[in-house]
Specification:
Nucleotidyltransferase, domain 5, 18% strand, binds zinc ion, six-stranded mixed beta sheet, binds 5'-O-[(R)-(carboxyoxy)(hydroxy)phosphoryl]adenosine, alpha/beta
């Protein structure tokens, strides 16, 4: 078994997974959404203090698995340095106390493995990663072979939902709040489609966000219509750039992962694309879309099989990490 710890942002989570069956044996997460909600976003120092309280509480419940553990996996990058630190300190302490090797998992690769909990991995996919911190198109060919096709020049997809929700005074996280409000609205606000005249595959959300701000300030539209118009355009931009990448790389499998992959309008737009281009569309179970340790444990299984261990002294937190760029 592998025990995994996740604390890259505002979810404290621990999971235990069986290495051969890939089944989850234990999984618990304590979310801090309520505590951060009144600030309209995550406050790093508060998040760190809450992890320091929550992680030991969850760990206590996993004691019966300790004799069966073969490794400890932990998210060490990317994320907030003060929160990553909490998980990494715990992982190091466990590895010393139980004499176990350490596995350092990239949170973004973890999101990809949210697709494979209790399952075998699919080795070749294009991945659209849409979370609070990132918006990326990736080519995935296994745990040690991930390259980047495109990333965002400014805000991420999820972050733009959070910022629009804040402007509308809705709270945090904005994604589900905007998605809900949009159901009652009509797309009456004209918003720009970012980078449509540039030949590149890139994302940008600052233009849509600013146009939404001006629409709110004009006081001409209802919050419902603003939410509906914003969501439609934000998703249209993902579809527009993904199409370019799909035409270029012709993937057989296409996955959407990350917190914002919970958005049902997004899922249905990519269902249309999958019919148009004939690829197999994958997304995680709803319970594994947002941050969790189960996905870190599942990625840890593949790293364990490849003996991708890290020494105690070399395990460092990395708030930012880059993927290599895809060729072609
Ligand atoms: O992956 P995640 O849990 O945390 C990070 O690694 O960032 O993603 C959280 C992000 C937040 O920005 C949240 O607003 C967004 O995912 N999100 C959504 C939806 N549910 C969560 N965005 C759009 N629609 C949703 N239904
Ligand atoms: Zn995440």
């Amino acid at each position: 078994m592998i025990l995994a710890i996740e604390s890259s942002c505002d979810d404290s989570s621990i999971a235990v997974i069986d290495i051969s069956s890939k089944e989850l044996l234990f999984h618990k997460k304590i979310s801090q959404e309520l505590e951060h909600s009144k600030y309209g976003g995550v406050v790093p120092e508060l998040a760190s203090r809450l992890h320091a309280e929550a992680l030991p509480k969850i760990l206590k419940e996993t004691k019966k698995f300790f004799p069966h553990l073969k490794a400890v996996a932990v998210t060490n990058a990317p994320g907030l340095s003060v929160t990553l630190q909490e998980g990494v300190i715990m992982a190091k302490a466990l590895s010393i106390a139980l004499n176990l090797p350490l596995i350092a998992v990239n949170h973004l690769v973890g999101h990809i493995y949210s697709l494979f909990i209790g399952k075998e991995e699919i080795k070749s996919m294009m991945v659209l990663l849409v979370s609070g911190g990132h918006t990326k198109l990736l080519n995935f060919n296994g745990i040690d072979d991930v390259c980047e096709i495109a990333t965002t020049l400014d805000d991420s997809f999820g972050e733009s939902f959070d910022k629009v929700a804040k402007m509308l005074g809705l709270g945090y996280p904005g994604g589900p709040l905007i998605e809900n409000l949009a159901k009652k609205g009509k797309c009456t606000v004209t918003l720009p489609l970012p980078l449509k005249n540039s030949p590149d595959i890139k994302f940008s959300y600052s233009g849509i966000k600013n146009a939404v701000r001006l629409a709110i300030e004009s006081q001409k539209y209802t919050s419902e219509d603003i939410a509906a118009s914003f969501q439609k355009k934000a998703i249209e931009h993902l579809v527009f750039m993904s199409k370019r990448a799909i035409r270029k790389f012709r993937p057989k499998n296409f996955a959407i992962v990350g917190g914002a992959s919970a958005n049902l309008v997004l899922r249905s737009e990519f269902e249309k694309l999958s019919r148009e281009f004939g690829f197999n569309l994958l997304y995680p179970d709803m319970k594994f879309t947002s941050d969790n340790a189960a996905m870190i444990a599942r990625a840890g299984v593949e790293m364990y099989k490849k003996k991708m261990f890290v020494n105690y002294k070399d395990l460092k937190i990395m708030p930012r990490v880059e993927f290599k760029k895809c060729e072609g």
